[in-house]
Amino acid sequence: MSYRAYDNDSLGFTTRQLHAGYNPADHYRSKAVPIYQTAAFELGDFDRCTRLFEYSEEGHSYVRFSNPTNTVLEKRIASLEGGTSALALASGMAAISNTILNLANAGDEIVAVHTLYGGSTALLAKTLPDYGIHTRFVEDENDIESYRKEINGRTRAIYIESLGNPGITILDIEKIASLAHEHNIPLVIDNTFATPYLFQAFEYGVDIICYSATKYLAGHGTIIAGLVVESGKFNWLNGKFPQFEKFYDEFKNNIEPETLKREMFTKRLRIRFLTDLGSHVSPQTVFYLLQGMETLSLRMERHTKNAQAVAEFLEEHPQVKSVAYPGLKSSPYNSLAQKYFSKGPGAIMSIRLKGGLEAAKTVLENVQVFDYMVNVGDAKSLIVHSATSTHFGLNKEECAKAGVYDDTLRLSVGIEDTEDLINDLSQALGAIK
Ligand SMILES: *Cc1c(COP(=O)(O)O)cnc(C)c1O
After folding, report:
1. pTM of the entire structure?
2. Does ligand 1 have an atom closer than 6 angstroms to the CB of 362?
3. CB contact at 8 A, 156 and 113
4. What Gene Ontology terms for biological process does this UniProt record contain (predicted)?
């Protein structure tokens, strides 16, 4: 009997999270995806070596460029997103930084929002300007005109998150995609908090998706990894991206031109940046990530169910000033949540406490089921004080723009029994004097 689930994109999401991109017949029929623990591959004959290095034949030579374990992951995430191709990298920040470098040369600009992961804000606002890549941050991320104002002839992309950090903002993504395309630039989204199960970004016009796979995709807090996925719909030869035109001319005789066009972002990311900057993720790590992804949809269902219950509990609590979770009717993002997140707007929320910094400390020091950690997207519930951790180093004004105050706690709701989570928060809030 032949095994055909590995390349059938009409199968459901949960079936594909288990099977897509892996054909056991190519791997001694091993049912689990093997870890190819080697630094390099035998090249075979002389002509094959040439074909591998000019990219006219797919295959593996040196593990920093590619290896069969990582290829399964790349095909699997591309299938789950409905994209043409993907690249695995060493971390979420490697995925994001390499993506920006693939898009922008010195003198080019990015338009981004303030409500980003702290590391992404630091990359765009502090690190990349030293290399000539500048970011204009929009004044009001909820107003499309604010984005339009920041776009000029040097802009090479708009960069946003599907669920903003840590205020869990939801932007009108379709409108932002249209604006980007009006200017012949791509929309790049960090979909870490949502995952492909909760949000199918390409359906709304997004061109490039970045992930910290460290979070929900892996799901168990055991590894660090990143992913970049490409829709295949953006025309990189539209005149705005000389680096892609050069790349196309270099490879059009070796790679079938239509394939090259559809997978151009990923191919250039691999051939230029993975190869030259070396943010390789080891196949051992990818194995854990693939294990985690096998249960992604099941975990996300439980995460969102718990998050909704926790948010509703916290909203009613007398020590809580406000809860930022788009699943709440009171959230200004509730209608956008219904439009974009029919399965629930993730499981991360932030709350503000009436008792200020002291109350925040008390909660952190009294939780017993929630763990005091900077991570998110673990199967276990986590809680953190953003201003002194994830957003450390940003000034008060930058923090306020991101929705981070002294009295703000961010919660990443896990998959434990709902009542244990509510009881834990109840006793920790009860300890506030
Ligand atoms: C964690 C995170 C990142 C960075 O990912 P690493 O894997 O830690 O490098 C980027 N974006 C978001 C939204 C994150 O939560």
Report:
1. 0.96
2. no
3. no
4. cysteine biosynthetic process from serine; L-homocysteine biosynthetic process; transsulfuration
